[in-house]
Amino acid sequence: MPLRPLMFGEILDGSFQTIRRNPKAMLGAGLLAQALGAVAAGVLTAAGATSEASIGAWLQTQSNSELAGFGLAVAGAIAVFSVLTVFISAVLQGAMVVPVARSILNRRTGFRQMWLLARGRAWALVRMAAIAAAAGLLAMALFAGIAILLVGTAGVLSFAILFPLGLAFLAAFMWVAVKLTVAPAAIIIEELGALDGIRRSWSITRGNWWRIFGIILVVSLLVGVIARIVLIPVSVLSGLFTGVVAPHDAAGQAAAIGVVVAVASALVSALAGAVGFAFQTSVMALLYMDLRMRKDGLDIALLRLLETGADDGGVPGRGVPVYGAGSAGPAAGWPPPSGAPPMRG
């Protein structure tokens, strides 16, 4: 990749090249991030396909209080599963920044090396994910409270207020999400804490919101369309398999086919999700590096590292000074004079 502020096409190409040159690190981490959800979805689908009638009969024998308790248990399990998935994804997303940063200098990174370079920031990534999740839940609870209050006082007329309020809530959520996009990369590369990483992402994205939003939107649409296309053969083959093997829809054959289709769909979804997760994470990391090049002169520091021709086994960008608002900028202190120690941000 060119060591200068990156264009949109260069960010996309760099993301593909990073995955291609570091498949063990990028796709391995992506599979781990998707594995929990894929296994759960496959097990639930297979269980539903094989015991739908028995589950329905069991539910009919339960009282209202027992059904309420069962519903609360299921909701609690889903909540715990969702939180665990968020934390695992946050840690892996941060770890995958390492091979992206190293690939800028044409350095390959294995899965073990990626984790060794990132594991010291794992708890900071978990705390960042916890802060973001807590803030999101608090905002949702606030909106739900306002909605209940309006419905109770204004009745039907409250929907005239709730609709624009909901749009404003969605816009605010998207704005904050874009502002925090590069927080995992900042935590990994600059070795920051959770709150410092959030503040750093907030400041470095200033003046670039629309550009980052456009890139994220295009990449999300691209990944979604490709995932749908990949799943089409599974759906077509499952239909053909059902028509050939179980044309009379026998109960045992239908259950077996349901299990096979569920497992195949889970595997394909996990693979497609891993590639999509790796690609989106690569884009996020390259956006961070691009912003550092634009604001901190990171490209100059990377050029000097590239000229040495040596791989110290570290993460490019660590130790490069950060210039805050009101500073003289990269030209004032970077690169340092020959023989002088580098400036500390």
Short synopsis of the structure:
The chain contains 13 helices and no strands. It has 345 residues and is mostly helical.
Largest sheet: none
Indicate the percent of residues in helices: over 70%
Low-confidence stretches: 325-345
- The amount of beta strand, in percent, is under 5%
Mean pLDDT: 80
Number of strands: 0
Helical/strand content category:
mainly alpha
Broad shape: globular
Distance between the termini: 26 Å
Please compute the radius of gyration using only Cα atoms.
24 Å
The DSSP helix count reads 13
Topology as H/E string? HHHHHHHHHHHHH
Walk me through the topology:
Blueprint: H1 8-21, H2 23-60, H3 64-95, H4 97-103, H5 111-118, H6 122-154, H7 158-179, H8 183-189, H9 194-204, H10 209-245, H11 251-296, H12 298-308, H13 330-333
Question: How would you describe the overall organization of this protein?
Answer:
There is one protein chain. It is built from 13 helices and no strands. The protein has helices at residues 8-21, 23-60, 64-95, 97-103, 111-118, 122-154, 158-179, 183-189, 194-204, 209-245, 251-296, 298-308, 330-333. The radius of gyration is 24 Å and the shape is globular.
Main attributes?
disordered C terminus; 0% strand; mainly alpha; 345 residues; 13 helices; single chain
